[in-house]
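Q: What does the assembled structure look like for these inputs?
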Amino acid sequence: MFKNEADFQKLVSRLNIDDKANPSHRESLRRQMLSVFNEAGQRPATRTIVFRTLGRTIMKSKITKLAAAAVIIFAVLISFNLLDVSTPAFAEIVKPLLTARTATFEMEMKVQGAPTQIFDCIYAEPIRMRQASKENDTVVISDLQQGKIVTLMPAQKKAVVMELEKRPDNQKQSQFNMFVEIRKHIQEAQEKKDESIRFLGEKKINGLNVIGYHVREAGFDITVWADPQTRLPVRIEQVMGPISFIMDDIVFDVELDESLFSLEIPAEYTVQTMQVDASEATEKDLTEMFQTWADYMDNSLPSTLDMNAPMEFMKYQVKKAMKEGREPSEESVLELQKVILRMGRGLMFIQNLPKESDWHYFGKGVKFGDANTPIFWYRPKGSETYRIIYGDLSIREMPADQLPKNSEAKPVSENTSDGQALIDKANAMGATIPAEKRDVVERMFSLNEKDLIAGLRVFSELSDGRYPSKLDTKSTLKETNGLGVDIFRDVPKEVKEQKLKDIFFACAYYDKLVREKKDVIYYGEKVTAKDSNKVLIRWSIREDKYRIVFGNLTTKDLAAEDLSKLEKNYKLPSG
Amino acid sequence: MITSFSVKNLFQIEDLHWLYCYGKRVLDDNFSDFCNIFAYGAIMFVMMVGAMAEIARQTDKNELVFKARSDADALGRLYDLFYDRIFRFCVHRLFSRDIAEDVTSSIFLAVAGNIKNFKGQNEADFQSWLYAVAVNHTNAYIRKTSRRKKLLAEAAPSVGVSEADSAGGSAEPDWPMLYKAVLKLKPKHQTIITLRFFENMDFDEIGRITRVKPATVRVMLHRILKQLRNHLQNTLDGEK
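A:
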């Protein structure tokens, strides 16, 4: 037995204790801990600490507090990118997804400007899918080996059969099956071993703590949320431009009745059949898309070449029909669907272009038929030269150093919107934007007049037709606060947040105009929503030309001279 | 008021936005007329991106502690420095490796959630704070009778004297036996034993963690060892 402290120390040193740490516990706890830290870090208290910590150095310079604050907040966001991401954990989580023979899940589909749709989905190898809508009775069954997509509408006893002609090999058919397409993108991201996969931390879904990974592939944003205990995916989210999907209640390798995928159509149904060209898309499909677009869209060209394009097309057609006071007939809707399907081949061509093709699109705002303006260029695989498509669809080839300079053009380097492209660029510079803020930041990047009008409309609705007296961000948000709590009584949280955001984005656009020295003047103190003839805000759009937003939020372009006549009764607001 | 939280969030977004919009335009397109405060902000941002990695490399542990309140990378590096020690401390206090892992998790998650409130200035302060959190969590675990019984049961099957000592004749307890004896002490005394003999801390460090004056720790330790010796002796006598 030990006699004193030294003796006891020796005794302890001779003990055989297994106290070696387990590396996998160390690693998984590290991730959990950092996600807890990040959650706590997003609370306001941390922001103050960050400011205090990093701000000291910055504030010594002549840079204003505002600029410094911007840097600091950015630095906080950068820290997300410094997390030690363990991709093996991700590999483990997605393994059941990548190897499943069958799967069942509930899918929520959101399309901007349309009601949310929920489907019960069943996937089965090799490339089959059954989607049953919960809102209406419609069932879509696709079997791509058979080359058919059948839509059954039992209530109307109707069926639409899409026959895929000139089908590509199995690998490329994935684009017709969402489940397989998601698998393909995850696999590709895993193979890249770059920053395509990012750990998002922890959150709760339906009371369950889950961990998330974000997979970013050109044109696709996929987020996989998994139960850290079972290591099984519990939710998969996918965003494709204006369309987003959420897959919940995911179960893998379920025994399924083959009849669920039967393509037979009940005898009493009337059948419409469409042939869809499923062959590999070519440059010709792209030029045909531009041609068709111009035919249906009053000689314009698409604003973007991504999933926003079909939406833009449909919205325009609906507006056109409404303007003409006609209800679109069933035939005309079917015809439009066919047109979209055809044009979709142009988008497919873009989607299949490799990154090295360096494709750029400049068509937004260009009139169809303009032989002098390039609208698209890309470098075909293995080629030294670029192919340039002009507004009249003529095509020329030239080397990279002779590509036309187009200062007005905004190249879009990937299958993304301008905002997404900017986010990608920022990511490439080392920043990472949290997934939940991505849409907000993206909207920031693509601020426009619509944001201004939307925010002003929200404010006037909340304040009986009044507008904010000033439109700088801080004053306006303060004034919004001053409207009191009653304005949001019984309003769902999401709606409230959306309204606040709309107001904020209006201010952000106003700030942008001010900083760009657009000779902007805002008359919010003097004008209300009833004043259809009074200028609420105006700014210069080019020399001697001004954009006007009236009190009733209608807009007009006016020459400087005409504007001065309108404004002569106004006294310029102070400041 | 509406929700000040929402509005605050928006201000953060606003700052971020201007940095992006103007920063990118300045950097990409050389828009000279954007050389205003936002351009400076963007340039600062670029400098900071590069500088942050360098600073992180050069910073000493004290700076690491300072940064860890707001910087995930710094906290991660502190974690790397301390994980093994805290896990070991938990094994010594809780005997079972599985339970030690669970409690280690709860300790570091508590640290991540509360580090922004940590007021210390250097690594020593952080270590004391971290161990104090660890002491609280391990004691909280042991405080429950059912859990203490579970720990004793885990230690029970192999209780005895070590092979070497039984062969040599001088009775010396093995780890399970010593653990059982330690568990008979008051929680604070258990902590002092662990910190002193398993973590090899001096009286100052133990004093900071347990909030007892170092001189008092020294006196207490003397008495604790006496008690422990008695507990062990009784166990050994019982076995004979």
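The mean pLDDT of chain B is 71.
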